[in-house]
Amino acid sequence: MVTGKGGTGKTTVAAALALALAEGGRRTLLVEVEGRQGIAQLFETEPLPYEERKIAVTHGGGEVYALAVDAERALLDYLQMFYKLGSAGRALKRLGAVDFATTIAPGLRDVLLTGKTCEAVRRRDKQQRPVYDAVVMDAPPTGRITRFLGVNEEVAGLAKVGPVHHQAQAVMRVLKSPETAVHLVTLLEEMPVQETVDGIAELRAAGLPVGNIVVNQVRPRLPGEEQLTTAGARHDGIARALARAGLGGARRGGRAERLVAPLLDEGREHAERLVLERGLRDELHRQQLPLLELGLLSGGVELAGLYRLARRLRAALDELSAQQARPDRRTPPAQRTRPHGTHP
């Protein structure tokens, strides 16, 4: 499950994770549950239907399939599965009963969305092997992820017997099992970090498995950043350096000197930003979870950029796995993995 505050790039990270996990000949399923067709846009393909469709091939022959879960169609599946309604179920849809049920029944829509995803997790082929090596859900935002994942437990408690009760219990067994992890995507900004911290607390309180924190769009460090806090004291020296570089004469009030003030203002703002980001990183470290950082894509998130992001994420996950596998490892569980190819 990949969640995050709106605008943090959770859909992009979910897509990159599906690509990363498919490397080396594996097969993954990428599931969308919010009806936005964000996955289709990322992979530059037609809108996803309510069926599993192959949308990408990765290095080593891996395959990524995608599914846009529709609550109404999922409800018809359940009616057929549990009650063998067949054409009667389709008649209910024509009469508007299916849309009515998914709109007014508390939590029913979320039960259907999570249930369809968990069915893909549990599905086996003729040799009883999992059809998919991994299933990745582009989940709802952090603010409602705990409610979204916990609704099956509420339904299981309300429906004491019958197929609905057993289905809800089966879904919760998957969601709370070691097979599942909820990864939280954030930016190094105050609101997303606070929502991430709150989301982690809610997930832990609900007994749901929290995975990694993914810090997205991390800007690469610039040479000399550590000197920005003291740059204001070197006004004259900076003016002379600009003059030597050919940016105006060295005389008092010349072009070089006029450039110094706006440059110092920008440098001061950047230094303040670095201090803020350092504090936000510390706050994320205090959550005692693995912290993965993904560098900012300078060219934007087009299809080639998505594959680059997947390679960075694969490298970060491999590094994290190597750290956790060392028997004499002394690094804390919140050890940060730097953005691949951007930090030293």
From TrEMBL:
<dbReference type="Pfam" id="PF02374">
    <property type="entry name" value="ArsA_ATPase"/>
</dbReference>
<dbReference type="GO" id="GO:0005524">
    <property type="term" value="F:ATP binding"/>
</dbReference>
<dbReference type="InterPro" id="IPR027417">
    <property type="entry name" value="P-loop_NTPase"/>
</dbReference>
<dbReference type="InterPro" id="IPR025723">
    <property type="entry name" value="ArsA/GET3_ATPase-like"/>
</dbReference>
<feature type="domain" description="ArsA/GET3 Anion-transporting ATPase-like">
    <location>
        <begin position="1"/>
        <end position="161"/>
    </location>
</feature>
<feature type="region of interest" description="Disordered">
    <location>
        <begin position="320"/>
        <end position="344"/>
    </location>
</feature>
<protein>
    <submittedName>
        <fullName>ATPase</fullName>
    </submittedName>
</protein>
<dbReference type="GO" id="GO:0016887">
    <property type="term" value="F:ATP hydrolysis activity"/>
</dbReference>
<dbReference type="InterPro" id="IPR016300">
    <property type="entry name" value="ATPase_ArsA/GET3"/>
</dbReference>
